[in-house]
Amino acid sequence: MKRLKKGMVLFALCLTILFVSANGAVYVLAAQDISRLVDRADLLSDSEELELLDRLDEISERQQVDIVVVTVDSLEGESAMVYADDFYDDNGYGFGNKRDGILFLISIEERNWYISTTGYGITAVTDAGREYMAELLVADLKSGDYHLAFMNFADLCDNFITQARTGKPYDIDNLPREDFAFGINLIMAFGIAFIIALIATKIMKEQLKTVHSQPAADNYIRQGSVQLTKKTDLFLYRHVDRRKKAENNTSNKSGGSRTHVSSSGTRHGGGGGTF
Predict the structure, then answer these.
(1) For residue 190, what are the CA distances in angstroms to 183, 194, 197?
(2) Among 142, 149, 179, 182, which residue's Cα sits nearest to residue 44?
(3) pLDDT tens column, 171-211
(4) For the chain, is the Cβ count within 10 Å smaller at the N or the C terminus?
């Protein structure tokens, strides 16, 4: 009888260990299945996917903030905000208790894009920072260069998170400065063109020494060919178009990030648009 009891206890213990091990294996597999790149719209080649995923994984692990890219054919009737937030929540993205992360979603059918931020992602990517990102990314999306847009998104997130660690995230009064080299080159090109045009104009002016300005066009008319009996100016009409300047109600002029709560109860920041 004692042997039977011992056997039952051993059997129960084995089942418990097996159960824990099985659960552990399922958890590991689930974690491996959650890729930081989900290209359901099949916009990237195999080599582009590998390159982008390597970049997303490296930045995410180093910064301890999940950087995620998702492409879909359609939002299936949802808003881009709801779709992006729910996708992030339902697939278990995010580091730590606050689930730190940034997700970039695009939908081909609706031509929508959306950046959803969570945890430290809300701090790193403010509303002004997100708008700055959009100016750089949307042009590539419009041209169909999705791989470049996603790679730039990953690098921008890396830059924004690093800046936020200093205690002063990029915001309305602290956005990244433009490339000064490009500005200098543009000014130099304009200056050279202006000098060439000035020289050319001066040469042409020197060749027209016999030409003088005239107060009227009489000298250009053959004598006797036209006889004017009356001169008068008649104002016929004036047409003025007035259009009300469009108001931008989406800008957050106070700085920081506006947030909302998703259906799962997680707080998110973010915003989006069309391309």
Answers:
(1) 11, 6, 10
(2) 149
(3) 998 898 754 334 444 455 555 666 776 676 666 666 666 55
(4) N
